[in-house]
Amino acid sequence: MIERSRMNCLRAITGVLVLWSSTAWGASLVWDANQEPNLTGYYVYNCRKLPCTLNAGASLLMTLGKDNTSVDIGTPTAIQYYFVTAYNSDNLESSSSNVVTFIPAGTPPPPPAPGGLRIGPSQ
């Protein structure tokens, strides 16, 4: 088990889902590179429902090296949630980035997050 400790390394990590490709749709999870000198890499997690945290619902999807700042997640057929953490040469893991949501076309949106904060149409 990885010793969890607050690293100073997620200042710049933010998750953003981006659709790409002109012939076949796919999605990429993209984040800003971490600038810590002893950064070893990133862990990418996903969840099938909320809450999506290290302590609830998250599954390690993949481990990436320090030079990777994106990953192709393909075209999930169901709503998926993702977040990224960084880890250093002492195998200490940072706190997580924000959680991003992939919603396949034609899928009803997920229920609102606790606390009533939601994204809606402009008024």
Distance between the termini: 48 Å
Low-confidence stretches: 1-23
Could you tell me the radius of gyration in angstroms? 15 Å
Number of E-state strands = 7
Strands ordered across the widest β-sheet: 4-3-6-7
N-to-C SSE string, H for helix and E for strand: EEEEEEE
CATH class: Mainly Beta
CATH-assigned fold name: Immunoglobulin-like
Mean pLDDT: 76
Q: What number of structural domains do the residues give? A: 1
Structure description:
This protein has strands at 16-20, 26-30, 39-47, 59-65, 70-74, 80-88, 100-102. The protein has 123 residues and is an all-beta fold. It has a single domain, classed as Immunoglobulin-like (Sandwich). Strands 4-3-6-7 form a 4-stranded antiparallel β-sheet, with no helix packed on it. β1 and β2 (26-30) form a beta hairpin.
